[in-house]
Design a protein that fits this description.
mainly beta; 8-stranded antiparallel beta sheet; 3 domains; SH3 type barrels; about 50% strand; Jelly Rolls; about 5% helix; 6-stranded mixed beta sheet
Length: about 325
């Protein structure tokens, strides 16, 4: 199996404070008559290995990661998208789940920054399997975004897992930056669709108090009516300032943030960093479940205030109103 050395910006899936590092990319294929593979390998220091594995929407992927260094983890991503389906430092060294889309899945193996800086080594065993059949594409008569021209004036978001949100991106593909997020039932104006590989992407315009334009995966869009004056979805979007500190000995100051809310404390929060870039915070049911891949997360709740620590040094304070609205 041939290994190809490539350079990727770690800003896709690693802390923004790190500069680009060489990533070794390896395509994984299963032997004939099998549905899985096992890899035994080693990385040292800042080395990173990505394993690319093709799979279909609706199939079940199972991954187990067995390292001999407790500072080693894996993340699972769809294609080159910046968001992780699974963050090992938060969710542990195993994953089993139904895949949301067809395409290449990227299994990224890395050492946490503290171990990487000490140039530690990890030997690991990575077990991967894919089972089940891929989902049948949505029939063209179902009023989903299955055409590339024309179509309804308005889309309505549907088909998301309860509490999840749909990323809206700057361009038609997961490699583009996230510019917003929508929940089930939210509506957006249809500006036309196009194909990117096997995925249909639709350009949309989201109304409300903070309107924005971007691209979303068509499989989550179906024909909808124009939103009424009280149903624009603006309550799901907000921006403001929160207390923050980026170093252990730094006094608290304030940072700008923007948030996209789902239901019952599900929220995606982006905090603008003074030196540039953003820190991503992912909440489910009011609980912090992840940040940018490779960063550890901690949350302490006092009353309606959530004190968050990222990577052992960054500190943020978020009132419940940021997560739940109101």
């Amino acid at each position: 199996m041939q290994l190809n050395k490539i350079l990727l910006m770690l800003a896709l899936c690693l802390p923004s404070s790190l500069i680009s590092q060489p990533i070794e990319e390896q395509r994984v294929s299963f032997a004939a008559g099998t549905s899985g593979a096992t890899i035994q390998a080693q990385i040292t220091g800042s080395e990173i290995t990505d394993y690319l594995l093709g799979a279909g929407q609706g199939q079940t992927m199972t991954i187990s990661f067995e390292p001999d260094n407790p500072s080693a983890y894996f993340n699972l991503m769809l294609g080159d998208g910046p968001e992780a389906i699974h963050i090992g430092s938060v969710a542990g060294n195993s994953f089993e789940g139904v895949l949301p889309a067809s395409g290449d899945y990227r299994i990224r193996v890395y050492l946490m920054r503290n171990a990487a800086r000490r140039n530690e080594t990890v030997n690991y065993t990575l077990n991967m399997s894919v089972s089940g059949s891929a989902a049948t594409p949505q029939a063209s008569g179902a009023d989903y975004a299955d055409g590339l021209s024309g179509g309804p004036d308005w889309w309505q978001v549907t088909g998301l897992t309860a509490g999840d949100t749909l990323n809206v991106r700057a361009g038609p593909g997961t490699s583009h930056a996230v510019v917003g997020a929508l929940a089930n039932g939210d509506r957006a104006r249809n500006l036309g669709c196009r194909m990117n590989g096997e995925t249909r992407w639709c350009q949309i315009e989201v109304p409300g108090g903070q309107p924005f334009t971007g691209w979303a995966a068509g499989r989550y869009l179906r024909e909808g009516s124009a939103p009424g004056s009280g149903n624009s979805g603006a309550a799901n979007e907000a921006a403001g300032m929160i207390p923050c500190a980026l170093a252990p000995d730094q006094p608290m100051t304030t940072c700008k943030f923007r948030v996209s809310r789902g239901q019952s404390g599900t929220a995606s929060v982006w905090v603008t960093l003074p030196a540039g870039g953003e820190r991503y915070l992912d909440f489910r049911d009011g609980r912090l479940v992840g940040s940018d891949p490779g960063l550890s997360v901690q949350q302490e709740k006092t009353g309606d205030l959530n004190r968050v620590r990222i990577g052992g040094s960054e500190r943020y304070e978020l009132p419940d109103a940021v997560l739940y609205g109101g």
